[in-house]
Each structure stands twice: as structure tokens, then as C-alpha cells.
């Protein structure tokens, strides 16, 4: 970054008050060596002094002791006038001189660990005690007064501070950027506090939904474009890891559509406890399968619809083996995402220049989903196969012979895999693999036709069928029975269930009701 020497402001006096003392000693030493006078609070001053660096305690400056267990330390006009004086104004400079207050050129503050304290399961009183008051006041004051003061809120910036001090100070552009970072820091902090009050400590009702929805995201990177080339787009992260912060081990930059498909792929693959591979295009599975290992699961998933799998996004719920990598390297694939890669697997995948290889640990974990709508947002608890009806032990046999354990496992796989398909969804499965998927149709009959057509006569016969929602009429089901499916699982609950059950019985097909629906839009 080029420095504008006209606006560079030398740093002669610094106020340092930090909870996280990482890098503090080196910072203090560096500032002192550059001739900067240091003023500091309680244990920060203690650590600086212990490092052999001269430091003035805030209480010497204010003439008032730190009190109330640290609740009042820096909340004093001698501190805040020193931070807030606009040194461009003669009147402010004169008032400081009259009051005997010396200005600060640099403020270094980081805040009490409120979020971490809540996450540790601390008592409400302990959490409240970790709401920093004096720190944000100083940070906001210094950020507001960036024409005169530089504000630093992260130890990661200490290197920049020392470089700036040695070269004469920060210029206005740098001080503005630091002020922006500082306001983001306090804004995120306040959102965390307000959310804790709204979610937990002082929830307005027992609906389970907070009265206030606050979220803070940092821009991670600007993407080439959005869903289409005429739409600008960028990726933001919330600091919880997941796909948004996945490590890219190889390949071209991720696109907007790569992210949405990879998200859908991980959602699908992690629904299964067994080694699973999901191949996704336009957020729908063109193949999903479980296997003894991930290579077998991939072969089965790919066989579902090899034509559509071209240019797909693959999610794996186990480490990628070299065997799987060899298979994937043979097929044009946009993205592969997995929790880990065995030695040599990335090298095999990297033979293809364009495939994006991502490592994202753990299953998708967002407990709630927020969907923007015009003028607002919808929030819902994330669907994670958590309903009673997702366990075959709770299914009701609506008609036909009860399935054996092995057959029930097949039907259960179809039920889980069907959840990954956009509604209206019908999925046919055999041997732990999808063989025909009917997705995104505006009536269930067409979804059934699509699933049967994609499976082909041979694969449809004897397959296990799942429907994400009930059959409103027998017609959709009849497409499946005519194709010779062995069993069907569906939520049930239609006013015409009786007719649907009758049609299944007539065809000699076993049908289970789950009592649970899995719309996915
Ligand atoms: N109350 C105050 O006047 C006050 N002034 C600064 N602090 C915080 O005290 C911490 C540093 O304290 P110490 O130097 O004692 O470790 C910093 O995180 C700072 O944000 C304060 N603490 C909380 O509000």
C-alpha cells in the first residue's frame, strides 16, 4: 500500500489495554524502542512492566483507582478526552492544554472473551461479567477519532503497528481502515451479546425462536460472478468453519454455483452413517450411494446416471482414498469435497488441472437455516433426519408383507437419499444406491415417471421407492407399481390414503408410512 506522507501522523503516546495478551511484550518493547510513551491498565501494565518496559498505569493518569472488580478502569475523562480530542482543531488542542490532558496517538484494545465464556457453559453471572464496557468505549472513541488516532483491536496487526511507528506513523487511509476494522469488532461483539440475551438469558417467550436475529459475516473473497455472469457475488464467512472456510487443496477458484452445489452435496452425503458418495448437479443428486468403502460407493453413485454426473460436484463423508481419486480423475468433475485425503489422493486428483479439491471437516452443522425473502427472512430448524419417522423402527406397515431387516435397510436408504432431492421427489434405489431420481417436478406423477424412466426397466424392477411427501392420488404410485418396484416408503397422511393403499395392495407392493415429510426447495 502506498503511504500518503501528507496525512501520516507520528505515534508518540499509546494506550494499551488488552485481554488477549498475545504478542504484547514484543509490541510494548518495539513501541518503547521507537520512543513511544505507554499508558496501560492493570494486568496489561503488569505484563509490560515485567518485560522491563516503562509504563504508566491508567490510575496514575486518572488519579482514580481501578475499582469494582475492574468494572471501572478507563472510564474517565482524562482517558477519553485524550482519545477523543480532534487534534486538527485548535479549540480541542487548547482545551486539552487547559485541562492538562495529553492526547493519545495510538489505542490498542481487545475485549473480554464474551462469546468464549458463553460457549464454555459458564453461569449467567459469569457471562454478564464478561461483557466488556470500558474496552468498546475506547475502541469506538478511537475509531471515531481516526483523523487523530490509530486504533488496533487484533494482535495480528502488531507487526503493522511496529512497521508504521518506525516509518513515521500511519497515514489517514490506514487509520480509516483500522477504524473500520474496529467498528466491525465492536459490532460483532454487540451482536453476540444481544443474541445471547435474545436467545437465552432474556428470551421474550418460549417459542424457541429469538426475538432478534443478529449475524455478522466477514467478506472472505469476491467471486468471479454469481449464479449468472451478469450477477456480482462474494463469499462471506461467519467464523464457524464449514464449507465457507474449506481448505482448497487444488484447482481453479470456486464459483458461486460450485458453493451451492457443494453445500447440497455435503448435505446429502452426511445423511448416511456408512461410507457415502453424493454426486450433485444443480443442487440435485444424479447419484448417491453407500458402500463398503468410498470407492465402491462412488462406482455405485456414478452408475446411477453417468450422463448427468459429467461436470458434477462430489461429496464424500469419509477420507478420499487413492482408489477413489483414480476413479474420479477419469471423470470430468467440478468439485470434490471430503473431510480428509489419504496420502497420494490429492496428487492423483491434481492430474486434472481444473478439478477443485476441497477439505472441509465434519458434517454440516448449522442448527437453523435462514432464507431471505423480500423485506425479511424466514428461519427454520435445519432438517437433519431427526424426526421419529426417519427411523424405520417407527414406520407403519400400510400394506403388503413386512420387509426383512435387509430389505428394510434398502428402503431406509431410499428414504434418506430421497431427502437430498428437490421436491417433488421420487427416488428408486437398489443395493444401497440410487438408480432413478425424479426431481423438482410440480406434480408427483411426473417425478415418478422421471424416476422410472431414468432407472430404466431393468433397474426399476425390484427397486425400493421413496417419495418425499404423500401421494395425493394413486396415479403417482401406480407409475411405480407398474414399473415393478418391490416396496414404497412415503409419509402417508393424504385424505385419499385409502385409495393409495388399495392401489399398492392390488399391485402386491409393500408400502410403509413414515408420518414424516421431507420437502426440500
Ligand atoms: N471498565 C473499564 O474501564 C475497562 N477498561 C478496559 N477494560 C478492559 O480490560 C481489559 C484489560 O484489562 P487488564 O489490563 O487488567 O487485563 C481489556 O480487555 C479492556 O477491554 C475494561 N473493562 C471492562 O469493562
Automatic annotation (TrEMBL):
Keywords, comma-separated and alphabetical: Hydrolase, Multifunctional enzyme, Purine biosynthesis, Transferase
InterPro entries cross-referenced by the UniProt entry: AICAR_Tfase_dup_dom_sf, Cytidine_deaminase-like, MGS-like_dom, MGS-like_dom_sf, PurH-like
GO cellular component assignments: cytosol
Keyword Hydrolase part of the UniProt annotation: yes
All residue ranges annotated as the MGS-like domain in the record: 1-153
Species per Swiss-Prot/TrEMBL record: Streptomyces cinereoruber
One Pfam family of this chain: MGS
EC id: 2.1.2.3, 3.5.4.10
MF terms (GO), sorted A to Z: IMP cyclohydrolase activity; phosphoribosylaminoimidazolecarboxamide formyltransferase activity
GO biological process: 'de novo' IMP biosynthetic process
Record remark on domains: The IMP cyclohydrolase activity resides in the N-terminal region.
Membership in a protein family: Belongs to the PurH family.
CDD domains: IMPCH
Catalytic activity reported: (6R)-10-formyltetrahydrofolate + 5-amino-1-(5-phospho-beta-D-ribosyl)imidazole-4-carboxamide = 5-formamido-1-(5-phospho-D-ribosyl)imidazole-4-carboxamide + (6S)-5,6,7,8-tetrahydrofolate; IMP + H2O = 5-formamido-1-(5-phospho-D-ribosyl)imidazole-4-carboxamide
Name listed for the protein in its UniProt record: Bifunctional purine biosynthesis protein PurH
Functional pathway: Purine metabolism; IMP biosynthesis via de novo pathway; IMP from 5-formamido-1-(5-phospho-D-ribosyl)imidazole-4-carboxamide: step 1/1; Purine metabolism; IMP biosynthesis via de novo pathway; 5-formamido-1-(5-phospho-D-ribosyl)imidazole-4-carboxamide from 5-amino-1-(5-phospho-D-ribosyl)imidazole-4-carboxamide (10-formyl THF route): step 1/1
Amino acid at each position: 500500500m502506498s503511504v500518503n506522507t501528507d496525512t501520516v501522523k507520528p505515534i508518540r503516546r499509546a494506550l494499551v489495554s488488552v485481554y488477549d495478551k498475545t504478542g504484547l511484550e514484543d509490541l510494548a518493547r518495539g513501541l518503547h524502542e521507537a520512543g513511544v510513551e505507554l499508558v496501560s491498565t492493570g494486568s496489561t501494565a503488569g505484563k509490560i512492566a515485567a518485560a522491563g518496559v516503562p509504563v504508566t498505569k491508567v490510575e496514575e493518569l486518572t488519579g482514580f483507582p481501578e475499582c469494582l472488580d475492574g468494572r471501572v478502569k478507563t472510564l474517565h475523562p482524562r482517558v477519553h478526552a485524550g482519545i477523543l480530542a480532534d487534534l486538527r482543531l485548535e479549540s480541542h488542542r487548547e482545551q486539552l492544554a487547559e485541562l492538562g490532558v495529553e492526547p493519545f496517538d495510538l489505542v490498542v484494545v481487545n475485549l473480554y472473551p464474551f462469546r468464549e465464556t458463553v460457549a464454555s457453559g459458564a453461569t449467567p453471572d459469569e457471562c454478564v461479567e464478561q461483557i466488556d464496557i470500558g474496552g468498546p468505549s475506547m475502541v469506538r472513541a478511537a475509531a471515531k477519532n481516526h483523523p487523530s488516532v490509530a486504533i488496533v483491536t487484533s494482535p495480528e496487526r502488531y507487526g503493522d503497528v511496529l512497521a508504521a511507528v518506525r516509518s513515521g506513523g500511519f497515514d489517514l487511509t490506514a487509520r480509516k481502515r483500522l477504524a473500520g476494522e474496529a467498528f466491525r469488532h465492536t459490532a460483532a461483539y454487540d451482536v453476540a451479546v444481544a443474541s445471547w440475551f435474545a436467545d437465552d438469558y432474556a428470551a421474550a417467550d418460549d417459542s424457541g425462536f429469538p426475538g432478534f436475529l443478529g449475524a455478522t459475516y466477514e467478506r472472505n473473497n469476491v467471486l468471479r460472478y454469481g449464479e449468472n455472469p451478469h450477477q456480482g457475488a462474494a463469499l462471506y464467512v461467519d467464523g464457524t468453519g464449514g464449507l465457507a472456510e474449506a481448505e482448497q487443496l487444488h484447482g481453479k477458484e470456486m464459483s458461486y454455483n460450485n458453493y451451492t452445489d457443494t453445500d447440497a452435496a455435503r448435505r446429502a452425503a452426511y445423511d448416511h452413517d456408512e461410507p457415502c458418495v453424493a454426486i450433485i448437479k444443480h443442487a440435485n443428486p444424479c447419484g448417491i450411494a453407500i458402500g463398503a468403502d468410498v470407492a465402491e460407493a462412488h462406482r455405485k453413485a456414478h452408475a446411477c446416471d453417468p450422463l448427468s454426473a459429467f461436470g458434477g460436484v462430489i461429496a464424500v463423508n469419509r477420507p478420499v482414498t487413492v482408489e477413489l481419486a483414480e476413479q474420479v480423475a477419469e471423470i470430468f468433475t467440478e468439485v470434490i469435497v471430503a473431510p480428509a485425503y489419504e496420502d497420494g489422493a490429492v496428487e492423483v486428483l491434481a492430474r486434472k488441472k481444473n478439478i477443485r479439491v476441497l477439505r472441509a471437516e465434519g458434517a454440516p452443522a448449522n442448527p437453523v437455516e435462514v432464507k431471505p425473502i423480500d423485506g425479511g427472512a424466514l428461519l427454520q430448524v435445519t432438517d437433519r433426519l431427526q424426526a421419529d419417522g426417519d427411523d424405520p423402527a417407527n414406520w407403519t406397515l400400510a400394506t403388503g408383507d413386512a420387509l426383512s431387516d435387509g430389505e428394510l435397510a434398502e428402503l431406509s436408504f431410499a428414504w434418506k437419499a430421497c431427502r437430498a432431492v428437490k421436491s417433488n421427489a421420487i427416488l428408486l434405489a437398489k443395493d444401497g444406491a440410487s438408480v432413478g431420481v425424479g426431481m423438482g417436478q410440480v406434480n408427483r406423477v411426473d417425478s415418478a415417471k422421471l424416476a422410472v424412466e431414468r432407472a430404466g426397466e431393468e433397474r426399476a424392477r425390484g427397486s425400493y421407492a421413496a417419495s418425499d411427501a404423500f401421494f395425493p392420488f394413486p396415479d403417482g404410485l401406480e407409475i411405480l407399481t407398474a414399473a415393478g418396484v418391490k416396496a414404497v416408503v412415503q409419509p402417508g397422511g393424504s385424505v385419499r390414503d385409502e385409495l393409495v393403499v388399495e392401489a399398492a395392495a392390488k399391485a402386491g407392493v409393500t408400502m410403509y408410512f413414515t408420518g414424516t415429510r421431507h420437502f426440500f426447495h
